[in-house]
Amino acid sequence: MKYQNTVSGKFISRPNRFVAQVEISGQTQTVHVKNTGRCKELLLPGAEVILTRSDNPARKTKYDLIAVYKPGLGLVNIDSQAPNTVMLEWLKTAPAEFPDITKIKPEFVYGRSRFDFYVECGKRKILIEVKGCTLEIDSVGYFPDAPTQRGVKHLEELARAVEDGYECFLAFVIAMPGVTKVLPNMETHPQFGEALDAAVRAGVKILYLPCRVEEDSLKIEK
User: Is 0.70 topped by the overall pTM?
Assistant: First the structure.
């Protein structure tokens, strides 16, 4: 995926989950943060951030914060909408995991959940739930960075869908360099880790999708 009208800035503070104060070209601007997660280890005072300028003149916030440079790691994309976008782009390339795709349906309702993608490959009927990973510790990704009851529900529903004959995947889109695997963040949300373990034992498969992260783009590499 490509971004338009990107600019760099210096992070100042984050008054709440939705907005931040950023210095852009010497002026302090209130910007929209495209990630409601904590991102505490990323959004530190003085951090270099990447933003896109909105083309909507009526918007109160004229910029969206999409990425941040983490010392010792590199550029981390924190746009919470990006993982689904790059996942769709990747599926359309007919990757080895999903050859001969005949149908891709985003936002597919099953049970009490809405999953990111329903895919058909021949006789295979596949459900895919996408999670973006931005938390890194010692070159290992961790998910989630904040408790997610919705994530637990998704795992429980995927396990039930396996019993109904679906092939089910939890796909971690890793939006940062140098990280190739993701572990459950047991310190932050042990219930998610327990649900992940149960889902895998039930037959849910895990995809790890490292990305190439640039200031104006994001793409699944492998």
Answer: yes
